[in-house]
């Protein structure tokens, strides 16, 4: 693809690195930004830069946050006795959109995948165990809401083994309203909400 300007070419090159954005779409976006009001383009650039460099992760659950403690962990009206374990921040958003769950969360930051070189130590599993066993913890149930893929099931099995020796903790999984191999973030809100409500206790 030939470009009339090196600056446009550079912008298209960066935009096309975004997931699902090809060269043609990137060019369309670049030309749109070029024609837009200068303040509008500057505001977009500033928002993206602030997001990248100023956003942080919650010290407790590892969800994205603007402060050391995210809004969910800081909300004392939520059920402190349940923790929903998810692999990704997008899963928190998906579950929250169902309005069926009012407990806490724990974001693993991925799933165990030997093929990709991701092991338990690369996830926030130790942080979860520490959180559950911490003196004064109110946690009574850990819900494993991990996408039912091979890697997801491996991760859920590992977590179940890790938590099974804690008699005061019930470990449950979301009901199989989510198809095998499916991703939580793509499930419709009704199905995902029902899966949370009808979760099943894990055998020890």
From TrEMBL:
Domain of life: Bacteria
Keywords for this protein: DNA damage, DNA recombination, DNA repair, Metal-binding, Zinc, Zinc-finger
Zinc finger (C4-type): 58-73
MF annotations from Gene Ontology: DNA binding; zinc ion binding
Family: Belongs to the RecR family.
Record's function text: May play a role in DNA repair. It seems to be involved in an RecBC-independent recombinational process of DNA repair. It may act with RecF and RecO.
PANTHER family, sorted: RECOMBINATION PROTEIN RECR
Protein name: Recombination protein RecR
Organism annotation: Hymenobacter rigui
């Amino acid at each position: 693809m030939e470009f009339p300007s090196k600056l446009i070419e550079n912008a298209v090159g960066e935009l096309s690195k975004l997931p699902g954005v090809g060269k043609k779409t990137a060019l369309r976006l670049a030309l749109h930004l070029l024609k837009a009001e200068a303040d509008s383009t500057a505001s977009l650039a500033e928002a993206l830069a602030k997001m990248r460099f100023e956003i942080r992760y919650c010290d407790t659950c590892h969800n994205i946050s603007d402060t050391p403690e995210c809004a969910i962990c800081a909300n004392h009206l939520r059920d402190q006795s349940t923790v929903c374990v998810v692999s990704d921040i997008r899963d928190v958003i998906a579950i929250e959109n169902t309005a069926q769950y009012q407990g806490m969360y724990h974001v693993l930051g991925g799933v165990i995948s030997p093929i990709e070189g991701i092991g338990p130590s690369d996830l926030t599993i130790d942080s979860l165990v520490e959180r559950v066993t911490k003196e004064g913890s109110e946690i009574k149930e850990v819900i494993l809401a991990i996408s039912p893929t091979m890697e997801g099931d491996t991760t859920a099995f590992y977590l179940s083994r890790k938590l099974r020796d804690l008699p005061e903790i019930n470990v449950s999984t979301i009901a199989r309203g989510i198809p095998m191999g499916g991703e939580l973030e793509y499930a419709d809100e009704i199905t995902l909400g029902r899966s949370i409500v009808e979760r099943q206790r894990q055998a020890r």
